[in-house]
Amino acid sequence: MLKVTGIEKGIVIDHITSGQGLKIFEKLNLHKLSTPVVLLMNVSSNKLGKKDIIKIQDYLDIDLTVLGLIDPNITINIVENNEIKEKRDIEIPEKVSGLFKCKNPRCITSVDDYAEAEFTLVPNGKIQYRCSYCEELTEYKL
Amino acid sequence: MNLKGRHLIDPNDFTLEELQQIIELGLKMYENPEKYSEVCKGKILGTLFYEPSTRTRLSFESAMLRMGGTVLGFSDANTSSVKKGESIADTIRCMDDYADILVMRHPREGAPLLASQFSTVPLINGGDGGHQHPTQTLTDLITIKYYKKDIKNLKVAFCGDLLFGRTVHSLLKTLSRFPGISFVLISPEELRIPYHLRDEIMNKHNVEIIEATSLEEHLCEIDILYMTRIQKERFFNEEDYVKLKDSYILSKGKLKDAKEDMLILHPLPRVNEISYDVDDDPRAKYFHQAALGVYVRMALMSTLLGVKGIC
After folding, report:
1. B66, B45 contact by CB (below 8 A)
2. Where would I find the Aspartate/ornithine carbamoyltransferase carbamoyl-P binding domain in this sequence (chain B) (predicted)?
3. How far is B170 from chain A (nearest CA, A)?
4. Domain-by-domain residue ranges, chain B?
5. For the segment A89-112, what is each residue's pLDDT rounded down to a tens digit?
């Protein structure tokens, strides 16, 4: 059986739906880190059957907001001295910027680099965000 | 009311009270234009029209000239540095030194909001793509106020292009904040109002909406009929435009069951959605609507410029 040791200090992103780990790895730009990072795929899970896990050595300033948009089942563990110091629940963020583009081809954000849209979650039960410039709704998809 | 230095990008930028005060001032200016003929002496309006316009641009120019001010600007992006690839931000950073107040029309939705983030002088949205057109809304509201005396308890029908029609979007958004308003939205299935707008009107303001495809069906019960043009310039292909362009044509014959005091409004330009034989009908107010637009823009600009002693 494949064994991966724990980390002394850092972040563990757990309970990722099997198959989503690589997408999250790319979305968080983890390939650009210089510290050790491990992506485990198809690990046995009591809760999910199979799951993916990402372990990042050292606590780094990573924007984890995107995780709430991908899978609300994900859990984040902050590890210090080989122990889980903090467990963070994932929430769908109210405000998002820089993670995705407005879907409206007529929006100023599609042509002007000065215009970076801030998106606000619309409370309609779907993961849809209103663009601060054109007000169109964009549904987030990984 | 202290709106000095403020921008007008979206009709929701102003409270209902502020909107009504501008309309009241516009009506005073309409009744007695001579009194206001020099209130903007020494002020310069900068007109930044990245997209063609007749009424909005000339209405703004007329408004400033009628108040003793002057005007500079461009009416075609091809004759400005935009053609050379200049950003909106850089254009505004210079124009706000050349003028005391700016009006911008742009084909991109959200462009005036972006411009306002770089402008040190009041900036007015003169229409952005299919998004918003707040000064047309002021024009519509002053006309409703003039004829109906109160902007409340009205059934308002919008007919035509409700998907891309920025005048429709602005007016729907604004009227839904007034008491006792309900809407009849008449359009082909393909041109219904955007989802985000429907969501705002129904869920935020709890306004009743009836959606229909027939113009005649609801004509007898409505107080204001707001006709709009199917806009060729908003379609990505000719075929879709041709299919929908003649969806609704209001003729004199169709008005026989309409209320006698119904108002027929249109932001203009008209193509063929209102037959010429309707022009003589006493309910047709669209040309007077365009005239009143000058006075409400006078009221808006003088207020944003903080001109003293006008109220």
Report:
1. no
2. 6-145
3. 12
4. 11-132+293-305, 134-290
5. 788 889 988 888 999 999 999 999
Answer whether A114 sits within 8 Å of B88, measured CB to CB.
Answer: yes
pTM score above 0.80: yes
Average pLDDT, whole number, for chain A? 87
| Residue B88 forms contact with A (CB below 8 Å) | yes
Separation of alpha carbons B14 and B182, rounded Å: 21
What number of residues does chain B have? 311
**Contact flag B108-A132 (C-beta cutoff 8 Å):** no
Q: How far apart are CA B13 and CA B3, in angstroms?
A: 11
Judged by CB atoms closer than 8 Å, whether chains meet at A108 and B89 is answered as no
Region class of A125: left (phi > 0), else alpha (psi between -120 and 50), else beta? left
pLDDT of residue B172: 97
Fold for the domain defined by B134-290: Rossmann fold (3.40.50)
B11-132+293-305: CATH superfamily: Aspartate/ornithine carbamoyltransferase (3.40.50.1370)
- pLDDT reported for residue B236: 65
Neighbours of A5 (CB within 10 A): 8
- Residue numbers of B annotated as active site: 55-56, 84, 105, 133
DSSP string, B10-21: SGGGS-HHHHHH
Which residue ranges in chain B fall short of pLDDT 70?
1, 81, 83, 233-236
Single-letter amino acid, residue B23: I
ipTM score assigned to the predicted complex: 0.89
Q: Is the pLDDT of residue A142 over 80?
A: no
The answer to whether B11-132+293-305 and B134-290 have equal CATH topology is yes
Omega within 30 of 0 (cis) for the link into B269: yes
Under 8 Å between Cβ of B230 and B244: yes
Number of C-beta neighbours around residue B243 at 10 A: 13
> What pLDDT does B277 receive?
96
Domains of chain A by start residue, with CATH? 10-89 (3.30.70.140), 95-139 (2.30.30.20)
Q: pLDDT tens across B1-14, in order?
A: 689 999 999 999 99
Residues in chain A closer than 8 A to B93 (CB atoms): none
Q: Measured between beta carbons, which residues in chain B are less than 8 angstroms from residue A108?
A: 88, 106, 108-111, 113-114, 128
Residue whose token pair is 């709704």: A137
